[in-house]
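Reply to dn_fold:

You asked what the input looked like. This is it:
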Amino acid sequence: MKNLSLVLNVVLLIAVGVLYVLHFSGGKSGEQEEEKGLLQSSAYSVAYVDSDSVVKNYDFFKKKQEELTAKSEKLQNEYKNRAEGLQREVNDYQRNVNNLTIGQAKALEEDLMKKQQNLRMYQESLSQQLMQDQNKVQAELYEKVSEFLKGYSSKKGLELVVQYTPGSDVLYANDSMNITGDVIKGLNEAYNSEVNSPEEDSTVVSE
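and this is what came back:
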C-alpha cells in the first residue's frame, strides 16, 4: 500500500508506434532512392505527446489520484487499528499466561494464531482492492486519452501520435510536432464540462 504513489505514476500508452514506408523503383541511383524514401516517410502527419505532462496536468487523473490516496490512507488506518488490537491481546496473553491452565493457554494461543492469519488475509485483501482500483483508473485514463486523440487527430489530419518522454523509443522529435498543450487543454475542457453538466432529471411527473 505504501507503493501506491509509485503505481499511480504509471505512464499511459498513447498509440505508440512508428510507420515508415519506403518504395524503391528500379533503374534509379541509390541517392535518388534514398531521397524518394525520405519524401514518402515525411509525408506522414506525425505528432507527439509528453505523457508525463498529461498525467501531471489532467484534472481527471489528479482527481482520481486524490481519491485513491484518501482511500489508501483510510484502509491503512483500518488495518493499523486491527493490528494494534491484536497486539494488545498478545500482550495480555503474555502477561497472564502464568496464571492460566495448560488448556486455557493452548486455547488462547490457537485463537491468537487464527486472528493473526485473518489479519494477514485482510491485508492481502486490501492490497488487491487497491490494485484493482488503480488498474481501473489506468484503463479509464487510457480510454479517455485515446478517444480524445481520435477526434483531435481527425480534425488536425494526423495519422500517428506517439509518446515522447525520457526512456521512450523516440530519440528526437521537433518541437513543432508537440501537441501536449493542446491535448491537456482539450482533455480538461471535456472533463470539466462532463463534471459541471447538470444531471438530467429522470423523474417522471404524472399528469
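DSSP finds six helices and two strands in the chain.
Hope that clears it up.
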